[in-house]
Each structure stands twice: as C-alpha cells, then as structure tokens.
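Annex B. Sample input.
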Amino acid sequence: MKIIVSGAGQVGFHIARQLSAEQNDVVVIDQSPELVRRVGDALDVQAFVGFGSHPDVLECAGAADADMIIAVTYADEVNMVACQVAHSLFNVPMKIARVRDQSYRNPIWADLFSRDHMPIDVIISPEMEVARAISRRLQIPGAFESISLVDGLVRMMGVRCNADCPVINTPLRQLAGLFPDLNIVVVAISRDGEGIVPAADDQLLEGDEVYFVADSSHVSRAMTVFGHEERIARRVIIAGGGHIGAFLGEIIENEHNGVSARIIEANSDRSHQVADLLEGTVVINGDVIDPEILDEAGVDESEAIIAVTNDDETNILASLLAKRFGTERAITLVNNTTYSPLVTSLGVDVVVSPRAITVSTILQHVRRGRIKAVHSLIDGFGELIEAEILETSGLTGKSIRDAELPDGVLLGGIVRGDEVIIPRANTVLQVNDRVVLFAKAEAIKAIESLFAVRLEFF
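Annex B, continued. Sample output.
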C-alpha cells in the first residue's frame, strides 16, 4: 500500500516506522524540518517539509495514487483539511484523522463528517481512547493491560511476575498439566525491555511482563495463577481534570457501579467546568503533588490513583506520593517512553502510553478485510490480532501443527460459535472460526500476504 502520514510527532513517527517495516510505501509530511530530518535519518521512507493540508504538498507526496492518508498533526484543523483535500482533489480511498477537540465530536454536529461534507472515514480521539484503556485496567486489578476480544468472549491480559508468582521458573508447557481446566495461552513476554515470543520450554522469570490470552470466564483464576489477587478499586483519585480525566470520570460514573472518584485539577476554571459536567464526582481545585490536597481527596483511603495531567513528572510524583500516603495502586500516564522502565521499578503499577494506544487504534483501521481488532504490544514488538477465517482459507480443515504459520506467530485463542477453544497442536481450524493471534512485527507482512492470497483475510 501507498500511505501518506501527515505529522511526524510521536504517533506519526511510530506509525510510519511500523508500516514501512512491513514494506509499505510510506511518505511522511511535517512542517518541522527537524522532525522531517529525524524521520528521514531513522526510517526507510520519503519525508517532505510542508503542511499536509496544502494541495501542492500532497501532490508532491504522491496523493494521486495513495491508498490512505493518516493525518496526526497536533492541529485538528490541519488534519481535517488534509483529509478533505485528499478526498476532493486526489480521491484517496481511506482517510484517518486525529481530532482532539471534543466540540467537533458533539452528536448534534454528527453530519459534519459525512461524505457530502467532510469525508473522513475514521476519527481518532486520543483522549477518549486513553480514558477507555484506563477504564479497562481498573476492571481487573493486578493487570497492567486488559483487552476484550471476540465480543467479550476472550481477553488478553498483561501481568507482571512478582517474586511471589507461583509459576516462576515453570516451563510454559507444564501450565496445561498443572492447570488442566484453565484456558490460557502465553503469547508474548517482555523481559528487560525486550520482547519474546515464547516457546513451550521457556520459563517465566521474576520481573517479566507476561501477555496471555484467556477465556474471559477464566480470567479471575488466571490472575490467581500469576499471583495477582488484588481487590477492585472502589475509591479512586484522578489527578488531572483535563479531557482524559473528565472522560474517565464520565466512564466511572456510567459504567463502574460502586466506584467513586475524586478529581484534583490545578486550574480553577477547568475544575468548575469538570464539576458541572460530572454529577456524582467530587472535583477539588489544587495541586496534585500538595500533600494537603491529597489528604483532602482521601488519599489514605483510596485504592487507586490515576495520574493523567499533561506533565509526565507531575504524574510520576503524584503517583509515588499517593502510594507513600497509603494508596494501594498507581496508574500513571507517561508520554516519554524512556521513563517507562524506570517508573515501574519505583513503584508505579501501570504505565499508560497515549502514543501506544493511539497507534493501536489507527492500526486497527489500516489492516484490511476480516480484521476485527489490532493492538500493538511491547512498543511495536508485535501485534495482537483478532480475525476471521473465511471459506477460501488455505488453513480450513488443517490442524495448527500442519498450518505452517510464519515464525514469530502464536495462536492464542479460537472462538467457534460461543465456544472458546484454547489451541493445541492437533486443533483443526474451521470456516468462520474467530482467531486471536500474536505476531512479531517482522511476521506481520508474511501473515498479511498469506491471508490476502489464501484467505482474502485483509
């Protein structure tokens, strides 16, 4: 595919890196010469200085024969106009735009993005996606990642192996024997910042971050197997009342029965806006790293703090202070990825990366055909993919042993009707099976080609 990426910030850079690694023809546009130079030096892509909304710049980038434009600059209006120009002048088939300002998303203006007005196929709101991702992590304490798949029948969980994890130093092949009724498959491991697609003889070590796919009804037992029996947080402090904090407050009010939240926001005007928006949430105007403010928010009685201000350092300090004062769990938003391995060793339980969440959301719409969901894991090491096997599949009727899947690919789960099947070597794949698989970045192109030719999968 030929793909134009407008915007070379963190999201644009990593989208371009991932797509170019899969041998797509990628062109990056940004108004910053410094960012364009960084992209040109680090990636095998074309890069131009200019505004992605300008017709001459899009023409220079080859929009006339592009399959897709992904507009992820910091300016909503540039992203929207880039998609409009790509559609009106160059007839680009697929247009994705990042839109932050929620006034554009108000339901009363729903016709704005119709094909007759501003034809954008997919609108990504990073703040809403991050709030939803944090909400998922609240639902299952002890997990730093939780993703629902196949209409909720399957979940992918991310857990950290602490010193008291019962299955440390146990070969993965023995898990089935030790827990014969437990439907889980470990599909990926992050060890010392490096991704691993595990083999049957691999063992889990203390400090590993483990990603496993499980039957949703078995998640609670699986968490116990990995040594996590934390209780669900009923009293929550949200540090930061910006868009993410406000969205999260709404989600907690509407979807988390029995959970109460208190929001701390430094800006007086913003704190009043959030208080007017949320009926059942207490909003406190103050500094999230002020011990008196934390005490007013009931930090010693709270089971979780969720730090989502616009400043990484403030989020980290607020999380550590809250835990020092008695809060059990800290979920911390961190934009600078170099901080991630440091803050977990300091005591932060869950690190939330807006960039990784946004990239995953965009990739879901880049993949073609019968792909239902895509989630990028371990900073782009690989992807968790949910897809459907069609009648034309060359895998139909074959056992997994004979399927000849590319190296770096693991099947984590199969859903047949309402039945969740944990794949074994002799499991036979059938038409209409919904499969959940993990693929290393290097294997995605091979998977895509295999599915495109034999499965019409994409």
